Amino acid sequence: KMSTEKGGKKVGGKGKGEGENTEATKTPEQLSYEAIRDGVGMIKRSISSGEVRFMHRAMRNFGRVRRGLMNTTLSPALSLGFKDGDDRLAWLKGAIGEVAPMQLDDSAADAKPADEEAKLAGDAEPEVQIYLQLLVTAFLIDGKRNAEAAECSEVVVEQVSRTRRRISNELAAKAFFFYSWANELVGKSAAIRPELFAALRTTTLRSDDAGQTALLNQLLRNFLEHNLIDQAQKLASKTAFPESASNSEAARYLFYLGRIEAIQLEYSSAYANLELAIRKAPKGAVGFLQAANKLAVIVKMLLGEIPDRETFNAPTLQRSLKPYLALTQAVRVGDLARFSAVVKEFRPTFEADKNYTLILRLRHNVIKTGVRMISLSYSRISLSDVAQKLQLDGREEAEYIVAKCIRDGVIDAGIVHEEGYVRSNEVLDIYGTSEPQGAFHSRIQFCLNLYNDSVRAMRYAPNAYRKYLDKSDDGRERAQTEADIAEMEEEEEGDF
User: Fold this and answer.
1) Is the pLDDT of residue 75 over 80?
2) Cα end-to-end span (Å), the chain
3) High-pLDDT (> 70) share of the chain, %
4) Do 405 and 366 form a contact (C-beta atoms < 8 A)?
5) What whole-number distance in Å separates Cα of residue 339 and Cα of residue 343?
6) Which of 183, 332, 205, 285 is nearest to 493 (CA)?
7) How far apart are CA 117 and CA 119, in angstroms?
8) Backbone phi, then psi, for 128, in 5-degree steps?
9) Is 287 within 8 Å of 353 (Cβ atoms)?
């Protein structure tokens, strides 16, 4: 008996080692195919059990599956949702490109037998077909084949509209995301705007939070792309963004809202929204963080403040923010000539970032900074010297600018028009004014908002009380699965 047990343990140990070696020697093609197959399995499990959490897991892993896509794995994976001879299957394989059959090792073949895969294709749900077509659309977009991606996404949206169930809300939201993106790449974003509005109306009536967040963001992006700022502001003011939205969608919404408010001169609320967007964005969404920080730097300077140096020293932002660092240095010292040179040198970069019109507004801030520094340096200075230092056209323009700065409270001074000079008043005790109170209030408000956002973002294991009620093996397995889902980090940077 002892020899038998020892032999059994020995055989079991050998099998485990072989399994680990097989896992380590799998090719990228095999890993990609297994990831697609696991996603299909999660969707089918969600449909059969009626539990949305499996659909959530499949959508969270969409970005990871997308990064590993290749035509050698995507083409055979289509058989998991389409029968042989299907016209749609032939079109999708033609769009991907004919490839040689993928060779699977014995372990991959044993993981899911051929007859079971045939059963999957025979009993495929519409959600499985939509999931596979979304992978094809993402693969075509990544391959710069935008026309084919737009055609594929259009078919997906039509199928979503025909066969839509509440359990597939997140899948439908992903379909509209790729539909809007693909049409934007081919220059047809304005033509699909009525369809997006119709879909938003439908999702609102169905109380579909995932669809509302995705469609609101796509419509705001659509309006901003065509410079329809008033329409975008009306849409944002007439709709309510769902509080249950994911962090990535909330970050997008706050970024679009911040850009709209910055263009409409509402700099304080714009900067607050941009700060929230930067905090909510996933750390791996480097492109989004760069765009948000660029806009935040400009808005902060339009508020009359200078951004911190740490913002420009971040490893992922240092290179992209280099033109904005030069711009900030020119604004900080109030050098109008240096500011004009920086704007002229980096104008193509600013126009590509769609921040050029906002940067032109900084000229007034540069002049105000220069006037403030002159007022602090001189107790009495002629208007001609002010015009010379600020490189203005003449004394009259300098007088007008100084008068405006006095009216706006930038400097505490007076103009003696008869003798043509500016006289600075004595600097009063700042603690005798309301400025410390305003700064203290803004800091308290920031802390309160941070606390409220943290409370809303807290997550709890679903149905945690069941561990006290259900002591069976199935109950423990379900509790373990739910705990794993609660601890899983959302891979949301794939959409940025």
Assistant:
1) no
2) 61
3) 79
4) no
5) 6
6) 285
7) 5
8) -65, -45
9) no
Output phi, psi for 422, to 5 deg. Answer: -110, 130
**C-alpha 62: how far from chain center:** 15
Q: What is the pTM of this model?
A: 0.72
Among 228, 229, 254, 232, residue whose Cα is nearest residue 243: 254
Pick 141 or 417 by higher pLDDT.
141
Neighbouring C-beta atoms of residue 410, cutoff 10 Å: 19
Structural contact between residues 414 and 423, judged by C-beta atoms closer than 8 angstroms: yes
Which single residue is written with the structure tokens 């020995």?
Answer: 10
Sequence-ordered alpha helix ranges (H) in 264-361: 267-280, 286-302, 309-313, 322-333, 336-345, 347-352, 356-360
CB of 357 closer than 8 Å to CB of 264: no
Q: Give the pLDDT mean for 246-252.
A: 85
**Which is it for the CA torsion 382, 385, 390, 393, positive or negative?**
positive
- Which residues share a beta bridge with 415? 422
Distance, CA of 77 to CA of 33 (rounded, Å)? 7
- The DSSP result for 247-281, as a single string, is HHHHHHHHHHHHHHHHHTT-HHHHHHHHHHHHHHS
- Give DSSP secondary structure letters for 115-172: HHHHHHHHT--HHHHHHHHHHHHHHHHHTT-HHHHHHHHHHHHHHHHHS--GGGHHHH
CB distance 241 to 216 below 8 Å: yes
